[in-house]
Write a structure and sequence with these properties.
Two copies of one chain form a homodimer.
Chain A: E1 2-4, H1 27-36, E2 37-42, E3 47-49, E4 57-63, E5 66-71, E6 77-83, E7 88-89, E8 100-103, E9 107-113, H2 114-123, H3 125-151, H4 154-169, E10 180-182, H5 187-194, H6 198-210, E11 214-216, E12 221-224, H7 227-233
Helix pairs in contact in A: 2-3, 4-7, 5-6
Chain A binds a DNA duplex through helix 6.
Chain lengths: 245, 245
DNA sequence: CGCATGATTTGATCTGCATCAAGGAAATTA
DNA sequence: TAATTTCCTTGATGCAGATCAAATCATGCG
């Protein structure tokens, strides 16, 4: 169930104003973006874009979480990205995308028609610069994820995934031991993201519960009981804010 | 053994002129780039940049092949990219890189000091646009590689890797059955790129030789005896120019 | 409420690839 | 040309995680 809102919330009050593609815009540039933007909402489970769809618009995630999924001929799937608020969907200069974008929670997007948006980035350097920055950050994150997929053990994969959630969900908010977190994905979806099966995900998650690293209040809600142990379990070296944050 | 050439070959005669970061530049913009560029050469095996190095310059690959490598605390490594002529190294706006860049063949780079280059992209939209395009292409390629690492079998991984080589090495040139190709990486390096061990790489490569899909003239030189079979072995669907090309 | 449906857990077994081990072939150096 | 080193092949064995199979739990619905 998707709808296009008639209203256009003010950019100046937007929760992602300082992190999204518009982050660097001055008032004039923001006004131009504001002129072509449209909000769209998607319910949890809805497809946002399907592979091969004409890419008529690009967008920023305002609320909620979406995933990018690739599917092989025979049905095997690999999630290739998770989008949180301020992340960008679509790419100027391309007419279609080659993966599916799915809303895993209720999602609100701030959409721009691709053509007008392309014209805008050709003329307003601040948007193009920010978009380049965002793309390069995503590229770094993708490369970190390649290490996870290619070299990490099941346990390290789970720990890294949870650690990533901690960082992304507490961009603002009290991090540290004891923060309440939400698992936006099912076991199956997690498995798809980290290159495992749902059974292995379940087993590893429960193992970390028994070890006292995680504490579940619910199947979807949990807290980090021991952040240090979690970090050690990721197999990554010393702090140093990995790119997938 | 690395040296910085005193000479600056003319951009207008550059083999990557129409594909590199300068592809969209007009004569004036090209002149500005030409003013700050310096060629550097590296011998096969040389490190080009080390993790944590200050990123004093960015560059385009002119000749040769380089790899991007990530290393975990305990020594496990994952190659996260292969750079061919016209590919770009480094990112404006970041002071250091978090992986190693290594020349796997003799390599020539066209280097730009990072600061002047950043100033250039802030003012010449054609460079920024092309850089965005290149980055987004790399992001697509990284995502395709995530599918390979997370979901493909050893055989599919090898086939996909070889298929990628075919495409990248015959950007210009007679593709199709029977084109002579070079394996720029050792078995160990291939293993690092596709998330396997060198033994498995060796076995799969020999299996494809026995099946008549590949024909080796040498350990490093081979031809595709059956391109269709190779493509089927990748596990990818119908043609459709994957992003890692 | 009782049932249906989908998500999760848990157990048993299997297997693809890693790991361990040992030669052989090429390239490099002396 | 021998000696060294690096790269590659091939075989034997082991194991992490996949696959197969059943409960159990949760949630929505009539």
């Amino acid at each position: 169930m998707r709808f296009t809102a008639k209203i256009r919330p003010k950019c100046s009050e937007c929760p992602i104003r300082h992190r999204a593609v518009c982050a660097r815009c001055d008032d004039g540039e923001l006004a131009m973006l504001e002129g072509i933007k449209v909000y769209r909402s998607f319910a949890a489970g809805d497809p946002i874009l399907r592979r091969g769809d004409p890419l008529t618009y690009v967008a920023s995630v305002v609320h909620g979480v979406a995933t990018l999924n690739k599917t092989m001929e025979d049905g095997r799937t690999q999630m290739v990205g998770m989008l949180f608020p301020s992340d960008f969907i679509g790419r100027p200069g391309r007419v279609e995308i080659d993966f599916d974008v799915v809303a895993v929670t209720d999602v609100t997007l701030c959409c721009f028609q691709r053509r007008p948006f392309e014209r805008l980035i050709a003329t307003t350097p601040h948007i193009a610069q920010r978009l380049l920055e965002i793309s390069l950050d995503e590229l770094d994150a993708a490369r970190d994820w390649m290490v996870l997929l290619g070299r990490k053990t099941a346990r390290e994969k789970i720990a890294t995934f949870v650690h990533m959630l901690v960082r992304r969900q507490s961009v603002v908010g009290s991090l540290g031991d004891g923060a309440p977190l939400i698992l936006p994905l099912t076991r199956d979806e997690i498995a798809s993201y980290i290159g495992l099966t749902l059974e292995t995900v379940s087993r590893q998650l429960n193992a970390m519960k028994k070890e006292g690293i995680l504490r579940f209040t619910d199947r979807r809600r949990f807290e980090i009981a021991d952040l240090t142990a979690l970090h050690i379990a990721t197999g990554d070296d010393e702090e140093g804010a990995p790119a997938y944050c």
